[in-house]
User: Fold this.
Amino acid sequence: MLIKTKPFMFSLLILTCFHMSLKGQDTDSNQKVRDEVIEFLNKFQEGYNKKDVSKVKEWTHELMTRDVYIIGTNGVFPNTGEWQVGIDKAEELFANDWKRWGVLETDINNSDIKILTPDVAMVAMKATVTKSPENGFGRSNEDNIKRCLRRLTGLEEDTTKSAQLKLFTAIWDAGMVLKHTELGDTFVWPIRISMVLIKKEGNWKMAQTHYSYPMFGYPPIRLIDGKVVTY
Assistant:
């Protein structure tokens, strides 16, 4: 039996409007959070643009939690290299980035932002790091070849490698340098950056971040009997 009374239809209309109102509020809320996250990412990029090491403490304390968890591109195990925890380590790592790494350009406009709650968001975005003699972070091909020759000369006195591994290292190092020499002295590396952001006392802060390069073929590091071996 169909119920077609006016009170019923009116109630149904009210419920429908209420549901649509809630959905609209949810969409508006998500957009607000997204806008706030993009503002955070722009502040993050601004630090890399200015590279003012004297302001790195202020920058990290504004944008990161006290126990921020960082996994950079250099660090095989926790608490080594660029795999660190804590705001003090963050200051060291980002200051070193600004002084030596290169020109970082993040693709904020195309970043993938996942809003988990009004106070938690995840970000994944692509970026590039550029080093060249022109921007002050790279070396000329001639300088790269000279550095390679010095490394090869020092292999003879390296007591951590067998004679066979020394030869492999020499071949790998020289081949890598010669290959990149052919490609020019401007290096543009693609990189992936992910972040976990949390909102504390009205401000978005980075709780975790991970930087990684795309890899094809064998990685340049492997473990043998639990020890790190590089070529």
About this structure: The CA atoms of residues 53 and 95 lie 6 Å apart.
